[in-house]
Predict the structure.
Amino acid sequence: MFDWLKKEHIVAEDGFNRWKVPPASIAIHLCIGSVYAWSIFNPPLIKQFGVVAAAPGDWSLSSVVWIFSVAIVFLGLSAAFAGKWLEEVGPRMVGVVAALCWGGGFLIGGFGIMTHQLWLLYLGYGVLGGCGLGLGYVSPVSTLIRWFPDRRGMATGMAIMGFGGGAMIATPIKEWLLGVFYKAPDYLGPLGSIDLVTEGGRRLAEVNGQMVEVVLAGAKQVAAAPVALQEGIYVVGTGNTGAAGTFFTLGIAYFVVMIIAAFSYRVPREGWRPAGWTPPTADAASRKMITQNNVHIDQALKTPQFYLLWIVLCFNVTAGIGVIGVAKTMMSEIFGTTLPLIVNSAFAATYVFMISVFNMVGRFFWASTSDYIGRKNTYHCFFVLGTLLYLSIPFAAAQVSVDPAVTWLVMFYGATMIIFTMYGGGFATIPAYLADIFGTKYVGGIHGRLLTAWSTAGVLGPLAITELRNMSLNSAIRDLASKVDPQAFVQKFGAGVEQLDQLVAAKTVTVAQLMEIAPAGTVDPTPSLYNTTMYAMAALLVIALVANALVRPVDARHHMESAAGAGAKGASPEGAQPAKA
C-alpha cells in the first residue's frame, strides 16, 4: 500500500537543487524538538486538580518528569530500529510514520490528562510520541550527508539544528495555548477569612453545608497563573490548567506540518557528487581521521570505536538532558526565592526559550566548526570547558543564598547557555563523526543504533537530578522543621511536627512555607538543592573526555569490500554486500 513512499520513487533528477532538502529536515526537527520544552508542562500537570496550587491528589513532579524520560528512551530504541529500515525504504516513508506517531502521541496524552490517567500520558507522549521522535530524528541525517559530502558537519548541523530550536518556537506557543484553555477554580475568599480543617494532611473548608477540599494560593502561586488571580482559598477540582486542550491542538498541528515536510524529501542518485567537488586526498583525510572505506552496520558493533563513541554521546547527553527536563523548575528554585523581583514565571519561561536558542545555535556552530578543527578536537572542547562550567553552578547557587546579587544570576545564566550550545553541538557533530570513522554507506543505521546512548541518558539524567534533588529537599525540610517553633508549626499547618512526613506527602508542608515561620537569619536551602547533581554531571564529562581521547581509526579488517577490491580480505560480515544507495 505504501510502496510509492519508498526511496526508489523519490530519487532526484539531474540538476536538482540540493538546498531544497534542508528545509524539510528542519521543519520535522522543529516539530519533534518541542520535546525540549517539556518543562513548560510540568507546572500545569502537577496542579491538575488544584490548578493554582498542587492538591494531594495531583501528580508529583518526579512522576511527570519521567514522561520526558520515557519519550527519550523510545526515541533511542526506535532510532536503533529505524536506522536500518531507513536505508531500505528511504526518508519519506520514515517521515510519514513519524508524523503519525508524534501527532497521535499528543492526542492520546491529551485524553490521559482529561481523564487523569497517568498511564495514558506515558503511553501517548512517552511511548508512541517517543517513537515519532526517533523516526523523525534519523529520517534526514544520512540523506543530508549524501547531499553534502563536501560539508558533513554543516549538513548534520542543519539536519539537527531544528531539533534544538523546536523549543524556541514551542515555548511561547505552549504558554499561549495554556493561557487560552486555562480556567481558574472557584474562589472562596482571602487567607484567614474561612475556617479550615486538616484531615490526613488535606485542607478542607465548609461550602453550602458540605466539606470540600481546598488549596491555599499565596503570592508565589498567584504570580505563576496565566491570568490575574487573588491570593486566597480555592476549591479543588473546579478549574482547568489548559494542558489537555494544548495537547490536542499541538497534536493536530504537528501532524500536518510533518506530513508536508516528509513529502518534500528527495534522495540523490547513485554516485552523485556536487558540481566541482573532489573527495579529499588520503593524507588530508587521515589528518582529520576521515576514512575512505565503509564499515557494515553490523560489523560496526564489533569495533571498540562504536562503544567509545557511545560513551561519549551518552555522558554528554546525560549531563545536559536532566537539566533541560527541569530547566524552568530549577531556575525558579535557585533564584526565584533569592531574586523574586527578577526571576518570576515569565523570566523562567524565557529561560527555557533561550535554552532552545543556544541549543539550536550550538548545533550549527559546533558542527560547522568540526569541519575545520576535526570531530575529535570538537568533543575535547565540549568536555574540558563543560566540566569547568558545571562546577561553577553550585558556586553561583551558594553565593546567591548569602548575597542575592544579580551577578550570580548572570554567571549561572551564561554558564548554562554555553553548556547547552555544547549539548546541542554534540548531537549535531556525532553523525559526521560516525561518517568519518565508519564511512557514509551505513551512517544512518549506525547513527540510529548509537542513539541508544540517548535512551540511556534519558533515564540517567532525570533520575540523577530528581533523586538527588529529592534527597536534598527532604533533608532541607527536616532541618528547617527542627528549627521552627513547634507552636508556630501547629498554627501554620494545623498539625504537629510529629506528622511532618504525612504533611510533606500531602504537599501541605514545603520549604517556602517553612521559611515563612523560620527564625530570623535562617538561610533558604532551596538554591542548593541541585549542587550534588552538578558535581555528578562534571564527573561524567571527565569520563567522556577519556573515552574520546581513546578513539582511533577503525582497523582495516572491519572494512567492507570495495568494487575495486572484490575478493580481498575484509569483506562485510556474513557475506553482506553494500546496500543500495
